[in-house]
């Protein structure tokens, strides 16, 4: 890679699949990568050590910093560390830090929703606020936000998480328009659901309320099991690399079959048609629930 093409990149959320793999893939392509982990000395210690070992063994320019997007001081310190580690330059932010609260809306504990929004939405804002002054001053940069195939559509029992993904997309659109005059380009990657046995997804809420929806939850889980895992998560990493390096990066890149299908359905259909299509595919049509 030519020195001029080599970017300094901060990746947030590097303990889990996408952030971790993206950090390594970008470093292997010759970029300087600062991998943000929420607890590099605690729960993320093994992953921090593994990333360090890869960096040493393969001669990668990759270093780990602590980055908890819920804490402004941590975000600012990570961005400062990125600037000093990379000699005062940060070309690109890739934000994968987020998590999902799933389940029937009725059962969703408000405090858990607030915590998730704090991470997924306000956390993204904290990152943007931290990197933008320097990106403006240097005349440009890229911000790549990982959202979801649920960033423009919703499925039953995914309302809380989808709300955070919609909000992330809304912020990204506003930011794209506001920051373009400063040369800062914003883009969104919308992954499909990929199965990760290490991170099981369970509906949250109290038992009595969950039980009322049990029949539908089981039906949906079966359908998701059938559909999920058929896409290759490497596609998400390829899309991130393309968003980092490409010249004409589209605002949105849905990745994987279900994200493409859902976003296309939502675009094409009004809500009543969309509802019928989704409930029928999920096996949740009123007449199929007996
Ligand atoms: N995997 C999928 O099927 C899928 C599908 C669609 C969209 N997405 C989105 O893609 C992104 C990455 O997903 P993923 O599957 O790789 O991982 P994930 O299991 O959703 O976790 C994402 C990462 O966010 C980090 N994180 C959570 N809270 C944080 C905080 N306060 N500060 C900093 N980091 C924090 C996690 O760190 P800890 O390990 O410390 O919690 C983890 O590294 C997320 O935005 C997710 O919503 C994923």
Could you explain the architecture of this structure?
- The chain is of the alpha/beta class and 290 residues long.
- The protein has a single domain (3-288), classed as Rossmann fold.
- Helix content is 50%, strand content 13%.
- It has helices spanning 17-28, 45-58, 72-85, 110-138, 159-179, 207-212, 214-227, 234-245, 257-268, 271-281; strands at residues 8-12, 32-37, 62-66, 92-95, 141-146, 184-191, 252-255.
- It has a 7-stranded parallel sheet with strand order 3-2-1-4-5-6-7, sandwiched between helices.
- Bound molecules: NADP nicotinamide-adenine-dinucleotide phosphate (NAP).
- NADP nicotinamide-adenine-dinucleotide phosphate (NAP) binds next to α1 and α4.
- NADP nicotinamide-adenine-dinucleotide phosphate is lined by residues 12-19, 38-39, 43-44, 67-70, 96-100, 119, 123, 146, 148, 191, 193-194, 196, 199.
